[in-house]
Amino acid sequence: MNHTSLKFTLAPHFRISKLAVKLQILPAGTCLITLRFLMTFLSVFSCRVIQSKNEAFPVGSHVVAYCGWRSHTVCDEKGLIPIIAAWPKDISLSLALGTVGMPGLTAVYGLEEILELKQGETLLVNAAAGAVGSVVGQIAKIKGCKVVGSAGSDAKVAYLKELGFDVAFNYKTVDSLEEALKTASPEGYDCFFENVGGPSSTVALQQMKDFGRIAVCGNISTYNDTAPQTGPYPQMVILMKQLKMEGFMQNRWPHKNEETLKRLMAWVKEGKVKCREHVTKGFENMPAAFMGMLQGENIGKAIIAV
């Protein structure tokens, strides 16, 4: 096996370095994969098998892999997830990293397993134009709910309106986040799909209805902090409004993935869930794309195409 893998490594606070790693002889039970698409966040690949000593993953098969930022890698079957069977030819395999992949699963499980969203309820989602938030809002509309989304640019707000959000606003330009939330839903919010954290979430909690539910999916406002944020603290509003707040990750429900991915694919094919990807071409441009994602430059899923 004569391959060299290009690899990016991530130091604390997102300092990125590049290495070249010589791949060794392929061990039994493993396969060599090369990436086709890369998710900028969490280092997830959509890959093609180019050499194999594992009958479950023949040469030419496509998989999702959690292997870090590298152009080639050797994996055993524990590091590989087959693409769902009968993937439609007219659907890009990049969606295995987005709507019909981990972000889509996150959206479904947050809504159904954590929030237990019901028809007629009002949902608030922040970072609503991102890979997870945009799917969250569309599924909530399928379920017959009112959806309010916040995003960080006018272009993102326009995109949310295209997706069918009932109300969308630019949190960076409103005079008052509190007033924007009250205007969007004067009666308050039954559910809050939390992707951002920080001071804006403190304001959002104040607008929850009594017995409201909050699914904590992300905390992107704090990911690059060099020191922990301090207060205000939410315990009093959680107590007085008797709120339920729960953090989660989609890997809690692996037994449901196959059926859930089929539902997501069906919604995509039916046009009920629309997808937009922010595509950067070239593995060498991954660091810039990653930092752009953290700075909110992308609408939809940030993807590297190789």
How would you summarize what this structure contains?
One of its GO terms (biological process) is prostaglandin metabolic process. By secondary structure, the protein is α/β, with parallel strands linked by helices. Helices cover 26% and strands 30% of the residues.
Can you give a write-up of this model?
The chain is α/β, with parallel strands linked by helices and 306 residues long. The chain contains 8 helices and 15 strands. The chain has helices at 102-114, 131-142, 154-162, 177-184, 199-206, 235-241, 257-270, 286-294; strands at 4-11, 15-22, 30-39, 44-52, 62-66, 72-76, 80-82, 122-125, 146-151, 167-170, 189-194, 208-216, 244-247, 277-281, 301-305. Strands 3, 4, 5, 6, 7, 14 and 15 form a 7-stranded mixed beta sheet that branches. Helix 3 links the parallel strand 9 and strand 10 (167-170). Helix 1 (102-114) crosses helix 2 (131-142). The longest helix is centred in the C-terminal third of the chain and has 14 residues, at 257-270. The mean pLDDT is 89. It is an enzyme of class 1 (oxidoreductase). Pfam families: ADH_zinc_N. One of its GO terms (cellular component) is cytoplasm. Its EC number is 1.3.1.48, 1.3.1.74.
Category by helix and strand content: alpha/beta
Number of strands: 15
Instruction: Supply the number of structural domains.
Output: 2
β-sheet strand percentage: 25-35%
Element-level helix/strand string: EEEEEEEHEHEHEHEHEHEHEHE
Say which CATH homologous superfamily of the largest domain is assigned. NAD(P)-binding Rossmann-like Domain
Unreliable spans: none
- What is Rg? 20 Å
Helix content: 25-40%
CATH class assignment of the largest domain: Alpha Beta
**Biggest pleated-sheet summary:** 7 strands, mixed
Subunit structure: Monomer or homodimer.
Protein name: Prostaglandin reductase 1
EC number: 1.3.1.48, 1.3.1.74
Organism: Amphiprion ocellaris
